[in-house]
Specification:
17% strand, Rossmann fold, 7 strands, single chain, alpha/beta, binds NADP nicotinamide-adenine-dinucleotide phosphate
Length: 247
């Protein structure tokens, strides 16, 4: 199923790889980003290089008005068939006994409420209950949801564990309405997110502890996302697919 895809946080990292791969597979793509307009423009150019339409839309997924603007941009492109709930943030390492309300609100607002708001708008467009013709949603969980990230960011792990049950619950709500909802659970993937958490060498530091003795690439996660959205995954619903190299 092609059509229009929204990739939140689609300008860099895993989101960028997903946006470009979905374009290669025939989707027009809304590339949402938060701050880095140049990265979003570069991703749109990569989408267009595959002969598809791309549009960059600035917006914070944790702000309802911004989410509405992202979906309005998609509506202009055509029928929404895919949402990749990819935008996500970590924070600097901290124990729970040192976490401020501001930190916790940011963590859950972006990682959890943002995914709920985007899924809400996607379901309104895709579900046969609302006059839609079906579609797919893929949420970004994390291996942290299972491993806990104790001493680093248990708040992030808890938000991602919430994404796991959100995925299954929403999948069951809309299963009979033509919408499949799945998640990918990446392990250590080579993107800038680790630097944003104040640990730029995290990938290199962890490499030897990883089962495959290497990190994953953004493309390897994007390939799982694209598969979950594809008709090849037509009976895969409510699944959380580990893309962790066995970690
Ligand atoms: P990344 O390299 O840090 O890229 C983050 C992307 O999200 C950027 O496009 C950024 O846009 C955008 N973004 C950040 N905050 C946003 C907001 N509030 N609203 C909209 N967009 C926002 O991240 P990544 O490593 O690709 O991670 C993507 C997803 O995979 C996240 O959900 C993350 O938790 C999950 N994940 C990653 C790993 C890993 O090892 N990399 C492992 C497990 C799970 P700007 O550049 O404009 O700020």
């Amino acid at each position: 199923m092609s059509g229009v895809a929204i990739v939140t946080g689609g300008s860099r990292g895993i989101g960028r790889a997903a946006a470009v791969l979905l374009a290669e597979r025939g989707y027009d793509v809304v590339v949402n980003y938060q701050a880095n307009a140049q990265a979003a423009a570069d991703t749109v150019a990569a989408v267009e290089a595959h002969g598809r339409r791309g549009v960059a839309v600035q917006g914070d997924v944790g702000v309802e008005a911004d989410v509405m603007a992202i979906f309005a941009a998609a509506d202009k492109l055509g029928r929404l068939t895919a949402l990749v709930n990819n935008a996500g943030v970590i924070d600097t390492p901290a124990r729970v006994d040192a976490m401020s309300v501001a930190r916790l609100e940011r963590m859950f607002r972006i990682n959890m409420i943002g995914s709920f708001l985007c899924a809400r708008e996607a379901v309104k467009r895709m579900s046969t209950r609302h006059g839609g013709q079906g579609g797919g949603i893929v949420n970004l969980s994390s291996a942290a949801a299972v491993l806990t990230a104790a001493g680093q960011y248990v708040d992030y792990a808890a938000a991602k564990a919430g994404i796991d049950i959100f995925t299954l619950g929403l999948a069951r709500e809309v299963a009979a309405e033509g919408v499949r909802v799945n998640a990918v659970r990446p392990g250590i993937i080579d993107t800038d997110i680790h630097a944003s958490g104040g640990w730029p060498d995290r990938v290199a530091d962890m490499r030897d502890q990883l089962p495959m003795k290497r990190e994953g690439t953004a493309l390897e996660v994007a390939q799982a996302i694209a598969w979950l959205l594809s008709d090849e995954a037509s009976y895969t619903n409510g699944a959380v697919l580990n893309v962790t190299g066995g970690r």
